[in-house]
Amino acid sequence: MLKENAAQVEKRVAAACEKAGRSRGEVCLIAVSKTKPVSDIEEVLETGILDFGENKPQEMKEKHDVLPDNIRWHMIGHLQTNKVKYVVGRAVMIHSVDSLKLAQAIEKEAEKKGLDVDVLLEVNVGGEESKSGVRPEDAASLAEAVSVLPRLHIRGLMTVPPVCEDPEEARPYFRKLRQLSVDIGAKNIDNVSMNVLSMGMTADFETAIEEGATHVRVGTAIFGERDYNKQL
Ligand SMILES: *Cc1c(COP(=O)(O)O)cnc(C)c1O
């Protein structure tokens, strides 16, 4: 079941790349496994997917520590400074940096462990009160402030747009994130690159690929609906 879902999503990613005139290799498919058991991840691993996304630091730690080492874990959820220790050294990329305070906490942990950490700035493109993420107008100054931290390397931007009924409604938000990444990239800030655009989920990943996504984060279409009441 999950293998078929994953194969189906892979087909759709490939078709979206083709439609957008992009090569399949430009887009990384991250299977978002939050709330799902290790056995589900093992099943999806058999399809060759090696990038998995989690939004809870402890859950990522537990899964990381029992699953194969070649998995690339992506931290995609809101991160509190006191949880940074679970993530640094386990995640290949932290997609959700949205404050200098958080960046400094990651830097401190990276220094302690002697590691470098790739991060994305999470941008609240829809300006929603309920969402985390830096405001678009503050993203460039946050990038400048974070750039001086020697162990942290900003690789690009991430966003979760407002919930839309139709993927077309998400397109302007994806365009906005892409434009923002072009604008910040043009500033040529030392230690900041803008090669990664993490955007697009189950409802809208094809639109995101058309708008330049390099990383799509797909949960439900691969793992099925999530049950937040069920204990893992
Ligand atoms: C849960 C989650 C996803 C995956 O959402 P689906 O709609 O299930 O594909 C992607 N990104 C973030 C940040 C998430 O929290």
Please describe what this structure looks like.
The protein has 232 residues and is α/β, with parallel strands linked by helices. The chain has nine helices and eight strands. The chain has helices spanning 2-20, 38-45, 57-66, 84-87, 100-113, 139-147, 167-186, 205-210, 220-223; strands spanning 28-32, 51-54, 72-75, 91-97, 117-122, 152-158, 192-198, 215-218. It has an eight-stranded parallel beta sheet. α4 (84-87) links the parallel β3 and β4. The longest helix is centred in the last third of the chain and has 20 residues, at 167-186. It binds pyridoxal-5'-phosphate.
Summarize the structure.
This protein is an alpha/beta fold and 232 residues long.
Summed over residues and divided by their number, the pLDDT gives a mean of 97
Shape: globular
Counting copies of identical and different chains, the oligomeric state is single chain
**Span from first to last CA?**
20 Å
Specify the helix fraction band.
40-55%
Question: Approximately how much beta-strand content do the residues carry?
Answer: 15-25%
Number of domains: 1
- The H/E string reads HEHEHEHEHEHEHEHEH
**Ligands, ions, cofactors:** pyridoxal-5'-phosphate
* CATH architectural label: Alpha-Beta Barrel
Strand segment tally: 8
Radius of gyration: 17 Å
Structural class: alpha/beta
Summed up, the helix count is: 9
- Largest sheet geometry: 8 strands, parallel
